[in-house]
Amino acid sequence: MLKGKTALVTGSTSGIGLGIAKALARQGANIVLNGFGDAEGPQAEVTACGVKVAYHGADMSKPSEIEDMMKYAAAEFGRVDILVNNAGIQHVARIENFPVERWDAIIAINLSSAFHATRLALPAMQAADWGRIINVASTHGLVGSPEKSAYVAAKHGVVGLTKVTALENATSGVTCNAICPGWVLTPLVQKQVDAKATALGIPVQEATQLLLAEKEPSMQFTTPEELGALAVFFCSPAANNVRGVAWNMDGGWTAQ
Ligand code: NAD
Fold it and tell me: Whose C-alpha in 195, 200, 213, 244 is 20 to 30 A from the C-alpha of 4?
């Protein structure tokens, strides 16, 4: 379905971003990966889907590096047709104790990076009259939780940015939508599970069940594969008129 298209997925060396990159690659899209850590393993996994894969290690907190990455993607593949703004980090602390440097980093990586990548991707999408921008927000783009001020503020911002991007392009073939996952068992969440186990002095398995029980009636994690399938749907012709939604996949978290 996506043969001949190019998808750039930020923060795709791990977790949800890698899951979405593989799902888009299975539909034939060439992929530009981004993120920290080992890039060779993820590159090999996506290449195995039978598409061309490039990698750029831009630090998404730095607008000049985002600009370099967008230029690199255009030079490699001609144009970015699908942009998935996924890179994100977390820090957990009450507001009065929240390190200012962590606040700035979370706003830069989880929110401002989506603005920068979007503003740089839009002109080519508009010229082609086709494009898909998918913002990986969170249930925390829809509801709050204590000790996550920066993350919740950034993710609510991402949902707002999604709506404005969708509206400004509503009469064109360029759509923008957000995905709002509940808990997904990636390194980002494993750190929170481990912290809970340590704080309560309980086994990791018990801490995992507690984490789910606090928020998710389904008592199940959403998987990167399920989120990848939703991203594929947003790229399909059936989603031509799906514009500005914040689609939760959260085991009932926000239905309560
Ligand atoms: P992860 O830690 O597995 O992956 C994060 C990715 O972002 C990695 O590839 C990492 O290298 C990259 N990254 C981090 N900082 C970066 C930077 N400055 N520049 C470039 N890349 C950077 O986390 P994940 O759980 O897969 O999270 C992906 C997205 O999904 C995040 O935006 C997160 O907020 C969101 N999300 C996650 C969950 C969950 O339960 N895991 C739930 C809702 C939303």
Answer: 244
